[in-house]
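User: Hey, my collaborator sent me this sequence without any context and asked if I could get a structure. I don't really work with proteins. Can you help?
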Amino acid sequence: MTAIIRIENLSKQYGSGTKALSGVSLDIHEGEIIALLGPNGAGKTTLISIICGLVVPTGGTVRVGGHDIATQWRAARKLIGLVPQEIALEPFETVINAVRFTRGLYGEGPDDAYIERVLRSLALWDKRDAMTRELSGGMKRRVLIAKALSHRPKVLFLDEPTAGVDVALRREMWEVVDQLRRDGVTIILTTHYLEEAEEMADRIGVINHGELLLVRPTADLMGEFGKKTLTIELMEPLAAIPDALSDRALRLSDDGRSLAYEYDTRADRTGIAHLLGDLARKGIMVRDVSTRQSSLEEVFMTLVAEPRQEVTA
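Assistant: No problem. I've predicted the 3D structure and written it out in structure-token form, which is a compact way to encode the shape of the chain:
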């Protein structure tokens, strides 16, 4: 796959001595959605800010569409749209003029038909003549996205794009993101809504303490690090787990009507067949069984707690 962004050995150390990034290397493929996950202060925003030309790196190189962000910054930045965490808009400007203004900053001529299409896709067309200061927080965030798209970028950065947005609006915004991906736009996002990353991202990168711990296709990451929980519903409640089953690491529900058994999907043997056989031999009748996959949040907490692993793109 073609890399539209190539990051090589990128580092950033501030004057205070704080290392925000340390030797980050990553290829981002054209047309993909990649989610960057990490705790606060992990280096996600610093990485985005460097690529977008807002922060100067201490070392390393970044190329966007083949253009070096340091020596060919004008060509590189023209390919990029950024939706920042902070809501910063022209308070005494209308929505449509704010988007027009941003388009002009990139040296693009007027194109009201395209701007109308962007505003309609974000449900902002009816608000086009409203002052930005009059909008709700969710609407203001939509305007930020419209501004970022105003010059038809090839790469869109979304830094916590749905923070403070209600569930319905969040879903609408992700539908827009999905359409952008279908249109060939490469999307890099940071988010604290881990279920969104799991649902939307083609790949997930985990950053902690300024280091890129790993990058994996989302499905592979869930399969590699995820665990499943087998829930066994019982015909009759148990007062306690029998001693003979104490080595099975079973958890008994408070009402005694179900057992939970966690197993590793990567293991050659899950132990489920033997467990069910042992229950039958003990006269414990099973009503039903079901499984649940670990969520990305659980996987993420496991990853940031583990020692650094080799990066794989």
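In plain terms: The chain is about 30% helix and 30% strand. You can pass these tokens on to your collaborator as they are.
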